[in-house]
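User: For my dataset I need records formatted as: sequence, then structure tokens, nothing else. Please produce one.
Assistant:
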Amino acid sequence: MPLVPMKQVLDEARKGNYGVGAYNVNNMEQIQAIMEAASLTKSPVIIQASKGALKYSKMIYLKKLMDAAVEENPGIPIVLHLDHGNSLATVKEAVELGFTSVMIDGSLKEDSKTPTSYEENVAVTKAVADYAHKLGVTVEGELGTLGGIEDGVGSGIVKLTDPDQAEQFIKTTGVDALALAIGTSHGAYKFKVEPKLAMDIIDEVRKRCPDTPLVMHGASSVPEELIAIVNKYGGRMPNAKGVPMAQIKDAIKRGVRKINVDTDGRLAITGAIRKVFSEHPEEFDPRKYMGPARDALREVIVSKMKDFGTAGHAGEYAPKTLADMKKLYTKKA
């Protein structure tokens, strides 16, 4: 099957009350690991590329790797999503290459660091939605700002989402999904102690906008065992705290449908590579360390798909095309 729009995947997750992981990629091994996990668990999957990933690997290379993933996994609904798009121009470039979903992070200016006003956020998000919906492409927006900085994205300033603004934002912009700021944070060094997320914000936004899938950014759990592996083989990472899986599961029950995961994958890959070099310092064949890195990432993603409730849902619906979604958006307009 072709790449599918994220709106359909998240709408199905909303009906089934489960979450769908959105996994960041930069190279072939990451895509292979994620797709192996999706195939093993029979899970729909969102593969996303950030601005940093696109700079590293170039959009066209990721797109061609995704074409291979689609061809090799015809029974898995796969979304190709732009993560933290910083402008309408970046969104257009992604859509022209075949991305079926885009995030416009209007909570930050184009430098991806400076917070915007509510009015500025509305203006750029609506412009992206107006453009993308004409092509059937899903649009995710963000309201509020997260702590931490990852991949050059983030102000480091925490501003929780205002449910009153969220309701108006969704109506005004027409976004298909909304990323909330509920106390999560980007990066590996999220918290010194276990966080207590603002679950009441999820409840309130879901009550006001029950048909809009909600998104959790900065949702890596940063498991102690992954940090321990990295440190065992020469790392110097402090004992950081991530978002506990129990809180992520609670958020899914309350209405979060898309869960962004990046840091946990990086930790798994780094730990596996460090282990190879520590135990076999003579090794110089990239396949000898990238292969174990791919295997380690696959195991992390399999666990996430089971925990999020995604496993087993891949064959439950007939995927729509961008043309189908274009007709749907036209009717709503």
